[in-house]
Design goal:
The protein has 14 helices and 16 strands. It is α/β, with parallel strands linked by helices and 375 residues long. Pfam families: TOD1_MUCI70 (PF04765).
């Protein structure tokens, strides 16, 4: 039985967590009782996709296609027709969702993969290009220690940067509470886009996990993960929880802000918003009863088919268009209208994390996986 809000909660601002005593006796639920249409996800790969979906493709076609987009052997080469199909909500959904080819990059050792397969609840972050330090999580109750994996994905640049500052991975592959996973052959030149892989595709990286909590690298996570799952998912019968945006509510206003802050070029944003207008995307402040814009630095979710479908579609949008995920979130929200989606207020996000900021400028990649085209 899941402990409900009537069980002695303590309140810090607007995040209500169950008491440590109740947390120690908490039993994981079987899953959210959501009547989702999507029951099964299958992923396109070069084993079953190339001949079926690209009978006309040859090496020159694929080269031209890759140069026109950021799709590559990691993502697969999603066409506009496949993009449209990916938003159809059926019992079985087949779509691109990264890890398209063994030659696509994002290489993880077998030892690390074994560790990741054993995780049932995971809190994850990443730092690629040496831009951020690793902030140790705080606030975990003793009763949660054996139930939660903390995993930080680094590339070799971050590894060398951290080692130069005396932060060395131990013989147990840990630094403090974090298990460090060093990724090789990142598939994109754009480090922000590389960071979307662990952020959005945790269901592919942790295939046996039931729940994941994503935390951007500029934050220190400061609450018990199991208590957070109870508060933001189980108590509200949700499968996906994300923070509302604190400054804006409209996708088109967000596009203007991204350009003004030089986070993407005007041309990139215009291409994306032109497509969204063409698709009929409304400029509403609320979509399906939720605020249209999200602040995506903390994402809490159950790793079940409907949320996994949402994240695959969202990932493909940031590959196709700009890597500013806050711009594509409202579109995916509008198209999928996923049951079990919830958004929490900004004050809850502030209770979940301490904002410590970026440490140094990210170093761009000098080369990518030679088997994989990039932006």
């Amino acid at each position: 039985m899941v402990v409900r809000t009537s069980d002695c909660c303590f309140c810090i601002d607007c995040l209500k967590l169950i008491s440590p005593k109740s947390l120690a006796n908490l039993v994981f639920p079987e899953g959210a009782k959501r009547d989702s249409v999507v029951k099964r996800i299958t992923y396109k790969s070069d084993d079953n996709d190339y001949d079926t979906y690209h009978p006309e493709a040859d090496s020159s076609y694929l080269l031209q296609h890759a140069e026109a987009t950021r799709f590559n052997l990691f993502t697969g080469f999603q066409t506009l027709a496949e993009r449209e199909d990916s938003f159809k909500v059926n019992e079985t959904v087949n779509l691109h969702c990264g890890f398209y080819s063994d030659n696509g990059g994002f290489k993880i050792s077998d030892k690390d993969r074994r560790y990741m397969r054993a995780c049932k609840v995971v809190v994850s972050t990443c730092a690629f290009g040496g831009g951020d330090d690793l902030y140790q999580p705080i606030g975990m109750a003793n009763s949660s220690i054996d139930r939660v994996c903390y995993v930080a994905f680094w590339d070799e640049v971050t590894l060398s940067t951290q080692e130069a500052e005396g932060k060395v991975i131990g013989d147990d592959d840990m630094i403090g509470k974090w298990r460090i996973i060093v990724v090789k052959s990142l598939p994109f030149v754009d480090q922000r886009l590389n960071g979307k892989i662990p952020k959005m595709l945790s269901h592919r990286l942790f295939p046996e996990a039931r729940y994941s909590i994503w935390v951007d690298s500029k934050y220190q996570f400061r609450r018990d993960p199991v208590a957070v799952l109870e508060a933001l998912l189980w108590r509200t019968n949700s499968t996906f929880a994300i923070s509302e945006h604190g400054a804006r509510s409209n996708i088109y206003d967000e596009g203007k802000a991204i350009v003004q802050k030089h986070k993407a070029t005007p041309e990139e944003v215009e291409v994306q918003l032109t497509q969204y207008r063409q698709d009929g995307m409304p400029g509403e402040k609320r979509l399906h009863g939720l605020k249209a814009l999200a602040e995506a630095s903390v994402i809490v979710r159950e790793l079940t088919p409907a949320p996994n479908h949402f994240m695959c579609a969202w990932f493909n949008e940031v590959v196709r268009f700009t890597s500013r995920d806050q711009l594509s979130f409202p579109y995916v929200l509008w198209r999928l209208n996923m049951p079990g989606m919830s958004m929490f207020p900004v004050c809850t996000r502030r209770d979940l994390v301490n904002s410590l900021g970026h440490t140094r400028k990210v170093k761009p990649l000098t080369q990518t996986n030679p088997e994989s085209s990039a932006s």
